[in-house]
């Protein structure tokens, strides 16, 4: 089959070579920029009026009309936010002609290239010019996003939402779907994931100051990688040719978190300069430190007594104190080597450090409650043991992402050739962390009673009565276990080479293009864990030896260990700690794995472009090979350990047809229709045939027999661009997915490979899933209103997603169960109201995301859901001078928490609750 596609590609090239070129024909070339010559206006739509041919301005504003007969022609240029411009061009009898076009005011660049209005104009222009359904986020001419953080800005895009981690936007959800169904790239290179257990990349790892634009492509054409069902997220760093004038920008920012009561710094510098007409350099550097705190409650093993009292067998109260530090840099070289060839090299480096201290108290109930009500449960140690654990986690984790892409583009007559090679690497490393130290007390017949109040379903509280002196005495909590992460080393590396060639044929009323290309990707992801477990101490060691305080606000959880006390005690007295050789061996071998994934892709497409109609059709082939290696560790009754390396391989091929239609019957009214097939490969870590278990006896088991998702997709949209900077769009989407992957949690204790577990998590393929939905979006600048209301802006969008699938309970074909797809929110909504006039720029944004299934339980009442989330953010900017601005942001104004639950015994039962409070940011930006 690969040979068949190669033969078809060769035939297309031979056909193109054998087609005669007009004896006398020239090429019209040029660039499009704003009226002041400050910035290239990417995606400007250009029309050669007399011939009905169209072209689109590229990233550096350039455009081409090849094969144009001698004569006089009119070029019409349209860009959202500006009036159309027409220029006259004379094509000579021999040779080519340049026609540079400027749009907008030649005095005030702010009209279409600076500020919120400029951001919207650029985004709508690129959306309008796109082949398929697409949303775009861009910086303006002076390097500003609509918000100070790229993730926060992306929240506002149609059909896009951001999943938070500890109060910060990190993972991108498109159309309410799981972030794992997206694929992300930097400068055309897929981003590997630093974490050992995911494919998706946390967006906050990449500093926003290094990003020029983010394109979220929700439909695919044959020349695109097909490994997405949600969207292809394409991140582009700055190029020197993005702007016609040099840019030097400095930003200084302070960040304040109300919980942490700490002010932390952020600073960045970025630049773009042309050293000559043919060579430019662009880049930047960024530093950010953030301190914050969060209060957390987690519960597990909900149960019900015969008299109807509902209770959790285990509850944890967690106190987080976190400090994150990001350092990033990018550098880009652009060279116009000849009049027909552009070359580039783009590099990116990002480092993310996460220092986390987590103190907690854990209650583990051995018996049912002695009494209870509809909202409470009372336990006494006279009925059975009440175990209380107090832990401190001291973990420093470092993530790095590195990427280098070199490539170019050659245009000669009707031919276009693009080529690139890239290397990218991501890593996550932890060494020396004490994660965690556990102290324990077991109360059994000691007169200790504990009551839990569930009246607030998100935040159950506890009360201790009876022998409270014993409960609160830190010396009663003796050392129980310590796990030291000697080394945790996750690596993900990928090499890519690709080449594409196309030939345009000029015809009456339009242009037909034949294009083909090949791409090869070589990826390897591995994880190595060396963890030492100590469960004894030669001497006296209790919580009293390392006593500290708390920053927890939900309730008093003292006594607690200090942040660094347990680590310092361990390092000073390491010789007295007793190593558990068995658990150390199990922890250090069961997690390790290595997976190689090689993907060979080729495609062939045909493209028709005319004034009103664009049709792109073709087929893509992707062949995937996996080499999967891990270890299975078995323990017999005498605790003898057998470690067996295992290896699996798989090889599969996917043929992926695609058809995209863009129809513009009249100016500013665009219809799109697309149908295509795509796939999403399973997480590499889930494929690893390994068995892993943690200190709480919670185990996970890989599945090398997982199949990739495969999906048929259809999109339809209608877009109306009206006024000077406004658009109303509506779209429908439909997806039929086979072999989707779900995480299954089995809460019944058991034994596997001779190792006892309390809870087992594994991964299975579901049967089939259907996704259908609706997207609506409205954007407008109200410049037609009387002053002072002519500075108002509005962006509103809504997405409805119905995503359902079927799984077989315990693999039993006679016991199917319908579920919503993981991380699929039914309703998402964004509303942004802005005001921009003169030196003032204001913005208020609200973002809503519906509940979603987070984890599949063995029964419906054990499924884990994440509750709906509504967040309000405010921002303001003031221009002191044309080159100096001050700004302020207020994030999560309403202190919206994270709440995960299960629907058990007629109510929402908390599994995890976490709140972070608001964060304020303020600072100054200067341009030179």
Description:
The protein has 928 residues and is mainly beta. The protein is 7% helix and 61% strand. The chain is built from 8 helices and 56 strands. The protein has a 33-stranded mixed β-sheet that branches. Strands 9-14-15-12-13 form a 5-stranded mixed β-sheet. Strands 1, 4, 7 and 8 form a 4-stranded mixed β-sheet that branches. The longest helix is centred in the N-terminal third of the chain and has 17 residues, at 2-18. It is globular. The two termini are 56 Å apart. The relative contact order is 0.11. Residues 11-23 have low confidence and may be disordered.
- State the helicity in percent bands: under 10%
Tell me the structural class: mainly beta
Low-pLDDT segments, ≥5 res: 11-23
Q: Counting H and I runs of at least 4 residues, what is the number of helices?
A: 8
The best one-word shape is globular
Average pLDDT over all residues: 88
Radius of gyration, CA atoms, in whole angstroms: 30 Å
Our measurement of the CA-to-CA distance between the termini, rounded to an integer number of angstroms, reads 56 Å
* Count of extended strands: 56
**DSSP strand content:** over 45%
Q: Major sheet: size, sense and barrel closure?
A: 33 strands, mixed
């Amino acid at each position: 089959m690969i040979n068949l596609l190669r033969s078809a590609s060769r035939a297309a090239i031979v056909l193109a070579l054998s087609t005669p070129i007009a004896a006398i024909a020239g090429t019209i070339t040029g660039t499009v920029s704003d009226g002041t010559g400050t910035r290239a206006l990417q995606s400007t739509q250009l029309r050669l009026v007399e011939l009905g041919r169209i072209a689109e301005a590229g990233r550096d504003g350039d455009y081409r009309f090849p094969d144009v007969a001698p004569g006089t022609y009119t070029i019409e240029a349209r860009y959202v936010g500006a009036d159309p411009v027409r220029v006259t061009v004379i094509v000579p009898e021999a040779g080519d002609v340049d026609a540079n076009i400027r749009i907008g005011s030649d005095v005030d660049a702010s009209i279409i290239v600076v500020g919120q209005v400029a951001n919207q104009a650029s985004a709508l222009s690129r959306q309008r010019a796109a082949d398929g359904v697409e949303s775009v986020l861009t910086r303006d001419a002076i390097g500003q996003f609509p918000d100070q953080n790229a993730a926060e800005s992306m929240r506002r895009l149609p059909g896009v939402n951001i999943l938070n981690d500890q109060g910060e936007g990190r993972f991108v959800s498109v159309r309410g779907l799981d972030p794992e169904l997206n694929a992300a790239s930097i400068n055309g290179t897929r981003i590997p994931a630093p974490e050992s257990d995911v494919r998706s990349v946390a967006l906050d790892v990449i500093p926003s100051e290094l990003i020029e634009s983010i394109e979220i492509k929700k439909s695919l054409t044959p020349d695109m990688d097909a490994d997405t069902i949600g969207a292809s997220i394409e991140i582009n760093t700055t190029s020197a040719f993005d702007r016609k004038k040099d840019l030097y920008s400095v930003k200084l920012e302070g960040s304040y978190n109300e919980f942490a009561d700490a002010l932390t710094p952020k600073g960045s510098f970025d630049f773009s300069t042309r050293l000559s007409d043919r060579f430019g350099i662009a880049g930047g550097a960024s530093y950010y430190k953030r301190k914050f705190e969060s209060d957390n409650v987690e519960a597990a093993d909900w149960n019900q007594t015969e008299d109807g009292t509902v209770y959790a067998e285990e509850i944890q109260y967690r106190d987080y104190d976190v400090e994150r530090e990001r350092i990033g840099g990018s550098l880009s070289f652009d060279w116009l080597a000849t009049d027909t060839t552009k070359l580039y090299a783009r590099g990116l480096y990002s480092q993310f450090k996460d220092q986390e201290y987590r103190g907690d108290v854990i209650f583990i109930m051995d018996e049912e409650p002695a009494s209870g009500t509809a909202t409470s449960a009372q336990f006494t140690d006279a009925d059975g043991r009440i175990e209380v654990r107090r832990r401190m986690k001291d973990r420093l984790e470092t993530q790095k992402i590195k990427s280098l892409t070199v490539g170019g583009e050659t245009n000669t007559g009707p031919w276009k050739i693009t080529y690139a090679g890239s290397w990218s690497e991501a890593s996550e490393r932890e060494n020396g962390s004490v994660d965690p130290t556990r102290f324990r007390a077991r109360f059994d017949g000691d007169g200790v009673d504990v009551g839990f109040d569930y009246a607030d379903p998100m935040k159950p509280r506890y009360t201790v009565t009876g022998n409270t002196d014993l409960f609160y005495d830190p010396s009663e909590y003796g050392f129980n276990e310590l796990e030291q992460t000697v080394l945790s080393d996750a690596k993900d590396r990928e090499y890519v080479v690709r080449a594409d060639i196309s030939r345009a044929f000029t015809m009456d009323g339009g242009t037909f293009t034949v294009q083909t290309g090949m791409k090869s990707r070589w990826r390897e992801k591995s994880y190595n864990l060396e963890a030492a477990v100590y469960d004894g101490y030669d001497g006296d060691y209790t919580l009293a030896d390392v006593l500290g305080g708390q920053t927890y606000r939900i309730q008093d959880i003292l006594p607690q260990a200090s942040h660094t006390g347990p680590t310092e005690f361990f390092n000073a007295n390491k010789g007295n700690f007793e190593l558990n050789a068995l658990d150390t061996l199990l922890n250090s071998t069961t997690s390790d794995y290595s997976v190689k994934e090689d993907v060979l892709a080729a495609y062939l497409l045909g493209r028709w472009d005319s004034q009103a109609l664009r049709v792109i059709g073709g087929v893509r082939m992707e062949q995937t090979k996996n080499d999967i290696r891990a270890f299975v560790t078995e323990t017999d009754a005498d605790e003898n350990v057998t470690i067996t390396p295992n290896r699996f391989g798989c090889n599969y091929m996917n043929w992926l047809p695609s058809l995209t239609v863009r129809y513009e019957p009249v100016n500013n009214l665009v219809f799109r229709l697309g149908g295509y097939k795509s796939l999403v490969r399973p997480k590499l870590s889930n494929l690893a045939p390994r068995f892993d278990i943690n200190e709480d006896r919670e185990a996970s088991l890989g599945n090398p027999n997982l199949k990739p998702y495969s999906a048929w997709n259809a999109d339809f949209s209608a877009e109306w661009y009206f006024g000077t900077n406004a658009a109303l769009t509506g779209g429908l989407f439909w997806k039929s997915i086979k072999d989707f992957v779900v995480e299954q949690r089995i809460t019944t204790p058991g034994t596997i490979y001779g190792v006892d577990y309390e809870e087992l998590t594994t991964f299975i393929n579901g049967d089939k899933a259907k996704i259908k939905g609706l997207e609506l979006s409205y954007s407008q600048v109200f410049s037609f209103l009387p002053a002072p209301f002519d500075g108002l802006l509005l962006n509103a969008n809504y997405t409805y997603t119905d995503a359902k699938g079927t799984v077989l309970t315990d693999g039993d074909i006679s016991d199917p169960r319908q579920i919503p797809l993981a991380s699929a929110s039914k309703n998402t909504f964004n509303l942004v109201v802005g005001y921009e006039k003169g030196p003032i720029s204001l913005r208020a944004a609200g973002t809503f995301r519906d509940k979603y299934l987070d984890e599949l339980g063995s029964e419906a009442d054990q499924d884990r859901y994440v509750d709906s989330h509504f967040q309000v953010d405010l921002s303001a900017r003031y221009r002191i001078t044309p080159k100096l601005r001050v700004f302020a942001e207020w994030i999560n104004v309403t202190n919206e928490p994270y709440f995960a639950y299960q629907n058990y015994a007629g109510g929402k039962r908390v599994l995890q609750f976490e709140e972070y409070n608001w964060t304020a940011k303020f600072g100054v930006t200067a341009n030179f």
